[in-house]
Structures are given as C-alpha cells and as structure tokens.
Amino acid sequence: AAGKTTILYKLKLGEVVTTIPTIGFNVETVEYKNLSFTVWDVGGQDKIRPLWRHYYQGTNGLIYVVDSNDRDRIEDAREELNKMLNEDEMRDAVLLVFANKQDLPQAMTAAEVTEKLGLHNLRHRQWFIQSACATTGDGLYEGLDWLSRTLSSKR
Predict the structure, then answer these.
(1) Is 109 flagged in the annotation as binding?
(2) Does this entry carry the keyword Metal-binding (predicted)?
C-alpha cells in the first residue's frame, strides 16, 4: 500500500480513485508533455514480487513508490529495489523514486528515504527522488518532469 495504483490513476485521470491491493498489474498510457508513457503498475505483495521480472524487458524508466511513513519496511524496500536494479534488463533504466505519503506527520523526508534506500551508492545510473502525496497530486508532475527530461535526453 505504498500508493502505486493511486499515483497511476492520479496521473492518468487527474483524480483519486478507490483502489484495492493489486494482484497482477494495471497498465495504462499516460500522456505528458508530448510524451506517451506506458505505465505498468505491478502489485507489491511479497508473494507476487517474483513476477516483477517478467515486466523488465524494454523498460526505460522505473518509478519506485515508497511509503515514507513505513519505517518498518524501508529496509525491505531497499532490498527489493537493489534486486530489481541488478537485473540485466534494467541496466539502462533511469530511476524515479516517489517518497509518497508526505502528508502524514511522521513521514520520512526525501533525504531520509534517499539515505535508507542507499541511492547515493548507485553508480552509473541516473536517479531522482521526489517528495509526493498521491492523494493531492503534490510532487507527481515534478517527478514526471524529471523523467520526461531525462528520457528525452537519452534518445
């Protein structure tokens, strides 16, 4: 419940939709600044994580959504992110991290999330972290701005 599906539909529809835990995936096209993103929103539950690698091929950018309020699972988030980034098919993918749920008073800052995910250790990969609140939309377009600029410059 980091907010992946909420973010996808906020970007796609501009509104907050009621979500249920994603078993499998949602796929949508999101148009932004003359770019068309095909976004695969893949369920995050432990038992379906082994399926993630089936979505890696042809990936240009990874949007990794973290629940900034969940200090108990941030280490798990770090491990899963590293596993993903170490896959061959993800070699050239740029990384956008949304530090989501910034509206909650105990939420970790983007700087804290950066440290706990070990983002500064990422060599040879373009990455960016953006504070976000999926329900209000705060930070989402700033993140997409970075992603669209970065992917456009890689063409």
Answers:
(1) no
(2) yes
